[in-house]
Amino acid sequence: MAGIKALISLSFGGAIGLMFLMLGCALPVYDKYWPLFLLFFYILSPIPYCISRRVVDDTDSASNACKELAIFLTTGIVISAFGLPIIFARAAVIAWGACALVLTGNVVIFSTILGFFIVFGSNDDFSWQQW
């Protein structure tokens, strides 16, 4: 039953994060939809780590180059997702208030993605592969 509670709380966190992103785009004060490009970063961020987990044997003896590369690529994607709204705001494409809402949404969404991998990433009795 603990897995169901974690799944519900993660989906709630994802909905809150997307709400902040949509508020940064759709409020009449801001009315620019450029920050929706961050949806690509949300989709791309877990892909390198998921691929590395499928390719690599999970031995705890030493660090693995494939897993390190996946973490590096994921970090680059996450940093790019935080940098894009700031660049948009500096170039006056979006307002600074919209930038703040989008950055708040980024924190919530990436925390939700991290929480998903923490909760369902272990090889315990309950994992996301059962779904």
From TrEMBL:
Membrane found in the keyword field: yes
Statement: the UniProt record of this protein carries the keyword Transmembrane: yes
TM annotation in the entry: 7-30, 36-56, 68-88, 94-120
Topological type in the membrane: Multi-pass membrane protein
Compartmental location: Membrane
Pfam families from the UniProt entry: Vps55
InterPro entries linked: Vps55/LEPROT (IPR007262)
Gene Ontology cellular component annotations, sorted alphabetically: endosome; membrane
Keywords: Membrane, Transmembrane, Transmembrane helix
Gene Ontology BP, a term: negative regulation of growth hormone receptor signaling pathway
Source taxon at top rank: Eukaryota
Similarity remark: Belongs to the OB-RGRP/VPS55 family.
Job of this protein: Negatively regulates growth hormone (GH) receptor cell surface expression in liver. May play a role in liver resistance to GH during periods of reduced nutrient availability.
Protein name, as recorded: Leptin receptor overlapping transcript-like 1
Native source organism of the sequence: Pogonophryne albipinna
